[in-house]
Amino acid sequence: MEETRKNYGRRANEGFFQKYCQGKGIDIGSGSCPLQVLGIDTYDLPNDAKFMQEVKNEAYDFVYSSHCLEDIDEPDVAIQNWWRILKTGGYLILSVPHRDLFERKRSLPSHGNKNHKHFFLIDRYEYPCTIGLVPFITKNLSNQDIIYVKKCDDGYSCNIVQQENFPLGVHVVASGELSIEAVVRKSEKVIYVEDFLNLRGNQK
Question: What are the φ/ψ torsions at residue 9 (nearest 5 degrees)?
């Protein structure tokens, strides 16, 4: 959750908030560091974030989640429900830890966070632990338009220290940005030629 605070300056300089955080939004997994925009709802119940059962379809203009998806046992179910509560034309904004910046290894358990159930790279899956965020998005979200997916490492530094209560006795301690950031627009429903012809036939 602290990652949201780390990248505020960069995002402000990029015009991120004006472009993607207009209207009514929700921060899923906000913890003590919610996205700093006016009127945003916060949702900090990790066990329920997968289903969002009490949230109606297309309730929000933007849906934001930072460093939460990697903690969920079925991330495909979670992202499909986050997409469900997003209005057509709105933006899903995701931030997840970049495996090679934060985890610094290829297999679970994580050196950096005991709650992590998955690792993330931008472009590719590496089984059994690593999810490729771009193919994951394209597989699970219909009518999606990926605005961008990028590695964010402003001010990054990392040390691996001995810590007995962590798996394998070491802990990754990183500062600066260490994330993959993605913005995905929920596009209008695509109508294919066959659907258009069927529609015309039904109107006669």
Answer: -60, -45
Q: How far apart are CA 177 and CA 98, in angstroms?
A: 10
- Topology (CATH) of 2-203: Rossmann fold (3.40.50)
C-alpha 77/C-alpha 51 separation (Å) is 7
Each residue's pLDDT tens digit, 25-75: 999 998 888 899 988 999 986 668 999 999 999 999 999 999 999 999 999
C-alpha span between 84 and 188 (Å, rounded): 14
Instruction: Label the pairing between strands 179-186 and 144-152.
Output: antiparallel
Up-side HSE of residue 2: CA atoms within 13 Å toward CB? Answer: 5
**CA 154, 137, 120: angle at the middle one, nearest 5?**
45
What's the whole-model pTM score?
0.86
Rounded Cα gap, residues 39 and 73, in angstroms: 30
| Alpha-carbon span 126 to 197, nearest angstrom | 42
Q: Say if CB 47 and CB 17 are below 8 A apart.
A: no
Domain ranges for the chain, please list them: 2-203
Here the tokens at position 169 are 């006795």
CB–CB of 140/199 below 8 Å?
no
